[in-house]
């Protein structure tokens, strides 16, 4: 490889110095073009062509899915430098298929209410004089304090849904369906102030899922991360499942980050149930895995995997029992003290729809 050239078809770890002046190698997040001296050529592997040479069709899947079998050269490189969304400036992490004429701009300007994109601040200001939205389209189905959730039909509000997918793709490393939003519902979480309802994050779900998926994509925007909103989104998805009378699960297989987020939620939710059990007639408290699943709407397989992860299942005198150690109890209590944001089921106004009787959505 000659100096200054980039070989397409192979991944090269990139060297960068961190704040402590130490070398670190980066993954795909925050991809950028770099010079030859910042490439690690020791671990270069040539790409392998598929057996038939034909590209595969993109998967209609969510952000948590770790399968990258359909990744291609174009989608590997981050193409938007900066996004202005309301009072926030966001630095994208990944590629997003915005129109090519917008990808070379120093800043991409978005209306924070309809998510329409423009190439300049003047263009955005002109749009704001015409845009009447001060909240996402669709129905507000939850409000408590300053937090609201809006349910948006991907068929009825196609433009907004497509713009939401484009924005989300800047922070989600996966293949998704940007333009066929008809089969999906989008649940957008907002924070209210005197200027309107500002988008915090969202999740999407299929209107009909044969696998009992209650989440396809899920994202908390960077300015709101590490503040408990991600767990609030997950909790809300399970509250919807409770109203629907179903157990649900996120789309599988989970990525590493997706598994961490869900495992934390599952652990706290299941431990909350177990620690709230009361003994009856001098007997030790009893509960079945099916009962935990019914109470929480967490699918049985996820309940079992969480109990195994926490190492709570033990075999004693011919039967399986759940054992809570002091470390587990104390760790759970500390975690719950930090979890200040919770969904209040009394504030949810949601009526499930039977999409199987609605033709093509």
TrEMBL record:
Residue intervals passing through the bilayer: none
Superkingdom classification of source: Eukaryota
Catalytic residues (positions): 251
EC number: 2.3.1.48
Chief localisation class: nucleus
Single GO MF annotation: histone H4K16 acetyltransferase activity
InterPro entries the UniProt entry points to: Acyl_CoA_acyltransferase, HAT_MYST-type, MYST_HAT, WH-like_DNA-bd_sf, Zf-MYST
GO cellular component: NuA4 histone acetyltransferase complex; nuclear lumen
Annotated stretches, region: Disordered: 44-65
Domain MYST-type HAT, residue spans: 75-352
Intracellular or extracellular location(s): Nucleus
Keywords per UniProt: Acetylation, Acyltransferase, Metal-binding, Nucleus, Transcription, Transcription regulation, Transferase, Zinc, Zinc-finger
PANTHER family: HISTONE ACETYLTRANSFERASE, HISTONE ACETYLTRANSFERASE KAT5
Family assignment from sequence similarity: Belongs to the MYST (SAS/MOZ) family.
Entry protein name: histone acetyltransferase
Protein's organism: Lonchura striata
Name of the gene this protein is made from: KAT5
